[in-house]
Amino acid sequence: MYSLAKQLISEKDVRRKISILEQLVNTGQMTTKDLAERLGVSQRTIFHDLQTLRYELPKDWLLEAQGNSGVSLTTNQPTALQEVWEFYMEQSLAMVVLKELLRQRQIAVVNFLMEQGVSYETLKRQVQKLNRELATFQLKIKLTTRNLSWVGEESALRIFYHRLLTPFTHQHFFFEDYQVHESNYRDFLASLQRQKKAAKTEEIFGICWFFINTIRIKAGCPIETLHYEEDALAQIYRKEIQGLYAKEGVLLKGDEAFFAYFCFLESWSYLIAPDGSALLRSSYGHLFQNARDYLASLTEGRALVENQELLEDLVLFQVKYYESKSLTDQFLGEYEEVLSVCQARFPQLFQSVATSLAAGQLSGITEVSNHAVSNLVLLIQTAKAQVNAQVRQAFLVFQGEPAWKQFLLQELQDLGGKRVSLQEVSPGELPEDLGSQHLILSNLPLDSETKATVIYLSMVPTERELAAFRTWLQNWYL
């Protein structure tokens, strides 16, 4: 969730302490040896960091040593990790630079150095490290003896900030008085619902876009000239979006108005709400036919031609591409790691979709990015899984008190979810033709050789044993 923020924090000690706290929050308890191995440092370094953390942690946080069992972290605060991040962001010069450059066109270097108590050479080193990470976003921070400023397109800059700050939307370090702005956005969504214009949205995703656009416009940093076509859907939402930004004292028009609308459209979930579905069907009947024809042209899509949810998803994809191909590709490019997973997990479907799009089989949409191909692959694959879910077979070989065994069988089945069929068997009942796609959970040593994955369980399975089960699932499904 915070991976980009950790990449950008160049101070090793700050990044390490954040990682220690994340590990303890996620696992509950860890030994210093395990922490050292996980973070790739010595136990001595971990001991030193833990000692420092005890003095730095906010009130009501407690690091406790549990003898040989390790270290645990306890707190009464429900938003614990956010509070820690805010504390350590203030200690990272890189994060302070990014915060200041979010709110103004440029930073006066002399004043900044005095406020932060650092030298010009220290700032120069931090900017160089930041620029290595920012290259992925086609951005750069320019440092002179007078000023710090951004180099790059404003749209790319806002996309970068959105990726960085979505996990920190409810946090004062970057977004002061966020409760007021959040209230305005929720009023906007409620207004759409009353007018039968509601769409199921990723709310935090949309709120973060609203914050970033408002801040950048007020800082006098306009969006660059965009290439777009404002169609029926944009016109339906234009007035409400302009009203939302007007509450922040921002007058939306031209390219800025379209960009704000497109950000709102990007927050739409692909599980479209009834009102949004009705708007798509009333405005884009021809695109629904395009979607049917496209699915019929794909070997993998023919069984899905009348899948209404998938048709709506494909229509929304087409709307985005027709309105602004360049923005669609930019927004999708925000998640490079998703593309890698998609290409590795579904290579045949990826190639099939890429080839069909290159041939213009989806209503003439051509020259699409790999990120757009990935987007379509995920939509089609999701629909396929809903129609014909792939269920992995797992076996529980367990000797113990019968009531406990039945309870454990149900618990493990619930943990595996609907994609795993867990069957209780005796060792002699295990099929002989098991392969690598099968799993055996056992509290008995198995005599026979098997190609299946075997995870040995304690009478009461430990966290590590359950984690091994979850890892096996993840390898198949993610």
From TrEMBL:
Q: Which UniProt keywords apply?
A: Coiled coil, Transcription, Transcription regulation
The record's annotation in Gene3D superfamilies points to: 1.10.1790.30, 1.10.1790.40, 3.40.50.2300, Winged helix-like DNA-binding domain superfamily/Winged helix DNA-binding domain (1.10.10.10)
Positions the record marks as coiled coil are 113-147
Q: Its Gene Ontology molecular function terms?
A: DNA-binding transcription factor activity
Locate the transmembrane regions by residue number.
none
Task: Report which superkingdom the organism of origin falls in.
Answer: Bacteria
* Name of the protein: HTH deoR-type domain-containing protein
Organism annotation: Enterococcus asini ATCC 700915
